[in-house]
Specification:
mainly alpha; 22 helices
Length: 491
């Protein structure tokens, strides 16, 4: 059998087992980067993109590395819908299930305002940039599809910093919740426009009906799955394995039923499933079970982001060289030129401006619902408009879609999505802590300092009371209150 393998490879056959090599390489890179994060300020996902670029350039420079070239061919030939089915349930559900119930209820209207009218405003502004500022002469459907792709936000780095420094849980809830529903709404618009770009005939009435099916039915299915799953979780007691498996089955089932069986938005179904479970589910879940469940979903989210960002870096390396030759990894021709670097800068600035316009338009409805929006919070929200995993999945979806005949447009989508993900994660995500400090989010208010002072006083009083109650022990001997006091002061 071993002697036959080279012959099969020579005939162009690639064993499906070679796909495992790519996963192992991605995880190894992810582990190495996590170990090195203490010595660098570059965000994790930006480092993954750089490693993917390095691997892609190495493959182009030295195609003799046949084993890894084979595994890249397998992943680049993956059916786009399978790509969405594998990764989107993880990306959507892992963040949605971890929301704080009270803040989610309070911020729900604000989240919906940003995620629906806000997405429309943002993707139209990006489409205007693509149509009138870029020299590529794209059609309006292509420009709108490009705008929908870049409208999906992924502020994971910003939310992580907000949680790390304890700056504002309310702001983190709004930003994170907006990005989750935003991803679903952007994907709905993306799927509608993709049919037009592919050349399918879509009438106004048909488009409205399709939108209602994708958005409304998708959200209702997600709520239904979340309610049923919450009922199941309430009848499971102290079984971490079963609880975790139920959430996993619920996430993928809601996506599959909505996307493949009903034709609705699978991502919106998954997000609403997770939101519903955050609001009403798991009242009987113990702290230990909840920690185990969230740890499991954290591992899945880390795995999905690691694979996607490395994959995006490799695909970027395929389209970056200013050449028009076919590569050993894909037969898609290259259409990039050096001038496109200037348009990367233009697009990055335009994205920040579009995000600013979005917050200005939504300022009044924001302050009449939920938590009031201050100018400091608005600035953090503008800066928190990172691009990430969902946008990259849509870019890869375009790149692998052979029904879109303009290969130049497909290459530009992967190029601009990858560069925007890298720059927003590196610049915006990497400077968020400094921005929070400058805006005063990391300093305590007098009320917070007063509360903290009272807590410390209560703890000291409890300590003194316990020390007085201590008695000699046959094994440990006489109690030593002075030694305890010295140790506590040292802490």
């Amino acid at each position: 059998m071993a002697a036959e393998a080279p012959a099969e490879a020579g005939e162009g056959h690639i064993p499906p087992s070679d796909a495992v090599l790519f996963i192992l390489v991605c995880f190894s890179i992810g582990i190495f980067i996590r170990l090195c994060l203490r010595w660098t300020k570059i965000p994790y996902t930006a480092m993954l993109l750089l490693w993917g670029l390095a691997i892609g350039f190495l493959q182009l420079a030295n195609p003799a590395t046949q084993a890894f070239t084979n595994t890249l061919q397998l992943w680049l030939s993956m059916e786009p819908h399978l790509l969405l089915l594998v990764f989107l349930p993880i990306i959507g559900f892992s963040a949605a299930i971890g929301q704080e119930p009270h803040m989610l209820r309070k911020s729900w209207v604000q989240i919906m305002v940003l995620a629906w009218p806000g997405v429309v405003i943002q993707f139209l502004l990006i489409a205007l940039c693509a149509k009138y500022a870029f020299p590529y002469d794209w059609s309006w459907p292509e420009c709108l599809l490009f705008g929908a792709m870049l409208s999906a936000t992924d502020p994971v780095a910003v939310v992580a910093v907000l949680q790390e420094v304890g700056a504002s849980q309310k702001l983190a809830c709004v930003i994170d919740g907006e990005s989750l529903v935003n991803d679903g709404s952007a994907l709905v618009i993306f799927l509608l426009l993709q049919k037009i770009v592919e050349g399918q005939q879509v009438t106004v009435a048909g488009g409205i009906a399709q939108f209602c099916l994708l958005a409304v039915v998708g959200m209702l299915l997600g709520i239904a799955f979340g309610a049923v799953t919450s009922w199941l979780l309430d009848n499971i007691f102290r079984d971490a394995t079963l609880t975790t498996i139920v959430t996993l089955v619920s996430a993928y089932s809601s996506y599959y039923v909505a996307d493949r069986l009903v034709g609705a938005s699978g991502l919106l179904a998954v997000v609403c499933n997770g939101f519903t479970m955050s609001l009403i589910g798991g009242r009987q879940i113990t702290m230990r079970v909840e920690d185990a469940m969230h740890s499991f979903w954290g591992v899945l989210e880390w795995s999905a982001n690691t694979i996607l960002f490395v994959w995006m870096g490799i695909v970027l390396a395929i389209v970056l060289p200013p050449s028009h030759e076919e590569t050993v990894i894909t037969d898609q021709p290259i259409h990039l030129e050096p001038r496109d670097a200037a348009y990367v800068v233009l697009l990055y600035v335009w994205l920040q401006a579009a995000r600013t316009v979005l917050l200005l338009v939504c300022w009044i409805p924001f302050n009449y619902t939920g938590y009031p929006l201050t100018w400091r919070s608005a600035l953090v929200m503008v800066w928190g408009g990172l691009r990430g995993a969902v946008g990259m999945v849509m870019a890869l979806f375009i790149f692998l879609d052979e029904q879109i005949h303009d290969s130049s447009f497909r290459s530009y989508c992967i190029f601009y999505m990858g560069t925007m993900a890298f720059f927003t994660v590196s610049i915006n995500g990497g400077t968020t802590k400094a921005l929070l400090q400058w805006l005063g989010f990391m300093s305590y208010t007098p009320e917070q300092l007063g509360t903290l002072h009272h807590v410390i006083e209560d703890m000291d009083e409890m300590r003194e009371k316990r020390l007085v109650e201590l008695h000699p022990d046959e094994v440990l001997g006489e109690p030593e209150p002075d030694a305890v006091n010295v140790s506590v002061r040292g802490v």
